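User: Hello, can you help with two protein structures?

Assistant: Certainly.
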Amino acid sequence: MLKNEQVEQFLNEINELLNEIKNEQEKLFQNVEQYHKVNMKNFEKLRDFNEICDMTNQVFETRLSNIEQILKEKLMNI
């Protein structure tokens, strides 16, 4: 009888450990999901920022090009 009790206790301990592992995996999965969502939001913000930078750079490039053209014209007239 003692052996059966030991086996049953051992099985209960294993079952507890398996439940702990399962719970830990579920927590890890939830954390990964949460971090993924946060990362995706940050990537979207970066994408928007890059688009704004590109538009700003286009405007400045156009202005610089115009200034260069005006300077060339002024230098040609000298």
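That covers the first. Now for the second protein you mentioned:
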Amino acid sequence: MSKEDSFWFAIAGAVVWLAATLFYAAFAGGLIEQAFWFYTLNAALVAAAIAFFFHLTARLRRLPQRRRAAAALAFSAPGLLGSLLVLALFDTLLPDLPPESLGRYGAFVAVAYGVLALLALERPARTA
């Protein structure tokens, strides 16, 4: 994977992570964390959105399937680092959320990037 590809995957990953985190910050206390089923649905939708934008970036960059593991690392690195920062400063950055939201946000991130890792490590289809 080229440096230019890495750059674009990192930028796309940072933008997607920021959007997902801002969504969580805006709606966690009043909507997302009100019911377990709704929290689970949101986590699945965010994981699907992150995977969608990863695959969209891969298609736009015309990246072959065999190089997607490295691309997923570049895509997820800014989000994982940003999430660590949010988790470390949770009370300061999200003071309106209850303390138990810290673990919920961590699970939210783990599910999203776990799904991305599974999709990126998917084996390419064999041609006949």
